[in-house]
Specification:
There is one protein chain. By secondary structure, the protein is an alpha+beta fold. It has two domains: about 5-135, no CATH class; about 145-275, Trna Endonuclease, Chain: A, domain 1 (3-Layer(aba) Sandwich). It has ten helices and six strands, in the order H-H-H-H-H-H-H-H-E-E-E-H-E-E-H-E. The protein has a four-stranded mixed β-sheet with strand order 1-2-4-5. A two-stranded antiparallel sheet has the order 3-6. A hairpin with a 5-residue loop joins strand 1 (about 190-195) and strand 2 (about 200-210). Helix 1 packs across helix 3. It is elongated, with a radius of gyration of 23 Å.
């Protein structure tokens, strides 16, 4: 999946618009052709050109919404391009930054926010975060999704440390935050383990977080079905709200889930169930 949110692409887009404003008779294609002929054409310019052709010149223009141009452009890009991490913006700056840094392209995306000056405490920055949160917010997705995202961040950090412990090359075997782009997969994070022959294989992790004193979690039918089709490699990681980076989640594998979910009977069919574990699951799962 290509990432259009880089400082280089945004700066290239701004430069293209500035050149168009200097000479209104020229087109973006004219400017790109000249850069190609003078060997000054970069990938950033090519990507910026594609965005302008697909979404229009207004994507990189100053609409006056914010004093800092980069703030306006980033706001417009998020609104128009609707990146897979857009919904996580409503949970606030601190949680969003923690989350985005764990994505494969997270470093580039994080730099875009820093480049736009969105890590200070100015009134304009506060206003930007409030407006983008309203843009990203939906009434039906609130506390539960926020808890879920916090749990996913802890899971990704935990798995990064685990792969280091197992000497699994994370450049070759990347942790995939599947939930950031596919909510129908039946699990949140794809990671890796080694078998006794030192062969690497994938595992599927469904991340849960509970804020209750007595921890519980919701399991959907889709998640349950996915666990059944991946009996040896599927696991629920259950985090408690007080857990921090460095802690270990409770782990409940596919066999445990099958024993602790209701059975369909007659015409009855469950679609979601709340599970309150009365044990610590499988502490040494896939160790």
């Amino acid at each position: 999946m290509n990432n259009d949110f880089t400082v280089g692409i945004i700066e290239a887009g701004i430069n293209l618009i500035e050149e168009l404003e200097i000479d209104s008779d020229r087109t973006v294609k004219d400017i790109i052709r000249v850069k190609e002929e003078t060997n000054t054409l970069t990938e950033d310019y090519k990507n910026a050109e594609s965005l302008i052709l697909d979404y229009g010149e207004t994507l990189f223009k100053d609409d006056g919404k914010f004093q800092k141009l980069e703030k306006s452009i980033l706001f417009n890009m998020i609104s128009i391009l609707s990146p897979p991490w857009k919904s996580s913006l409503r949970h606030g700056r601190e949680l969003f930054f923690s989350y985005i840094k764990e994505l494969e392209e997270g470093g580039n995306i994080y730099q875009v926010f820093l480049h736009a000056g969105l890590n200070d405490s100015s009134e304009e920055t506060i206003s930007w975060w409030k407006l983008i949160a309203n843009l990203s917010n939906t009434a039906s997705e609130d506390r539960r999704e926020m808890l879920g995202l916090e749990g996913e961040i802890l899971t990704i950090k935990y798995e990064k440390d685990k792969l280091d412990d197992l000497n699994i090359d994370q450049k070759l075997y990347k942790i995939d935050h599947v939930a950031s782009y596919d909510n129908s997969a039946g699990f949140d994070v794809l990671s890796w383990r080694k078998n006794s022959n030192d062969e690497v294989y994938e595992i599927q992790i469904e991340s849960k977080m509970s804020a209750r004193e007595v921890s519980d979690f919701h399991l959907t039918r889709n998640e349950f079905d996915k666990s059944l089709s991946n009996q040896d490699t599927y696991c629920v990681y259950l985090w408690k709200k007080e857990n921090i980076y460095g802690d270990t989640p409770l782990k409940y594998d596919a066999k445990w889930l099958e024993k602790n979910t209701p059975k369909d009977q007659g015409t009855s069919y469950w679609s979601e169930v709340t599970i309150t574990p009365n044990d610590d699951g499988i502490p040494n799962w896939q160790e």
